[in-house]
Amino acid sequence: MRSWNLLLFLLKTSTEIMLHSMFWREGKPHERSQIIDKLTGKIVQMSQHKYASNVVEKCLEHGDAAEQELLIEEIIGQPEENDNLLTMMKDQFANYVVQKSLETCNDKQRETLLNRIRVHLLALKKYTYGKHIVARFEQLSGEESQASDP
């Protein structure tokens, strides 16, 4: 129950200072793992909220390799769930979670993410927050998207 109360506290906080608080720097790994466990299955939904998206980013940053892989696999989803990734890439908060995923994922996951993003480059260029993903894609892949801005 303590970890659930801590999760609620983190989700409700309105300052970035709280996210950089003693918990993330000095918290015990098993406490961070409990937070990640509570978020598992809700990553896409939580990523679309201002403060919850910051918590998801911190989980990606501070989780161990297995936890990071689990969270990123949820973001990647199955091919038929590709709409979740597209929704996240266009969202004002979730796009930062996708970018953080690209920074923290393993090589295989990065390749999968870049392939899924490549399919949506033209659509992403039409959205303010999608343009952030296009820029990160170009930076990581070394490719430039072929269409110019409308």
From TrEMBL:
Residues 1-15 form the signal peptide. Pumilio repeats lie at residues 38-73, 74-115. InterPro entries: ARM-like, ARM-type_fold, PUM-HD, Pumilio_RNA-bd_rpt. It comes from the Eukaryota. One of its GO terms (biological process) is regulation of translation. SUPFAM superfamilies: ARM repeat (SSF48371). Residues 1-141 form the PUM-HD domain. GO terms for molecular function: mRNA binding. GO terms for cellular component: cytoplasm. Transmembrane segments: none annotated. Keywords: Repeat, RNA-binding, Signal, Translation regulation. PANTHER family: PUMILIO HOMOLOG 5, RNA BINDING PROTEIN PUMILIO-RELATED. This is PUM-HD domain-containing protein.
